[in-house]
């Protein structure tokens, strides 16, 4: 559960859970079941914060971490 249902709260939760520096998480995407990739913002996070289970996928590029939440 997120402390605050926004992008900062999501980054903070991922950082705490997986031991990643929050400042290195530079992009968070959501990939829906149909394969559409969406750049997450506060509105999308508020909409999905209590509704859907996700698989978390992490990729690294130039020391920055990209997170993709894949809808199950």
Account of the 3D structure:
This protein starts with 6 loop residues before the first helix and ends with a strand. It has one domain (7-71). Strands 2-1-4-3 form a four-stranded mixed β-sheet, with helices on one face. It has helices at residues 7-18, 42-48; strands at residues 25-31, 37-39, 54-61, 64-71. Helix content is 26%, strand content 36%. It has 72 residues and is α+β, with helices and mostly antiparallel strands. The mean pLDDT is 90. A hairpin with a 5-residue loop joins strand 1 and strand 2.
Task: Give the secondary structure arrangement, pairings included.
Elements lengths: L6 H12 L6 E7 L5 E3 L2 H7 L5 E8 L2 E8 L1
Parallel strand pairs: 1-4
Antiparallel strand pairs: 1-2, 3-4
């Amino acid at each position: 559960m997120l402390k605050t249902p926004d992008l900062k709260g999501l980054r903070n939760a991922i950082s705490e859970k997986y031991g990643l520096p929050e400042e290195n998480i530079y992009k968070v995407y959501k990939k829906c079941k149909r394969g559409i990739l969406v750049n997450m913002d506060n509105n999308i996070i508020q909409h999905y914060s209590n509704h859907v289970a996700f698989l978390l996928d992490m990729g690294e590029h130039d020391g920055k971490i990209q997170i993709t939440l894949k809808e199950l």
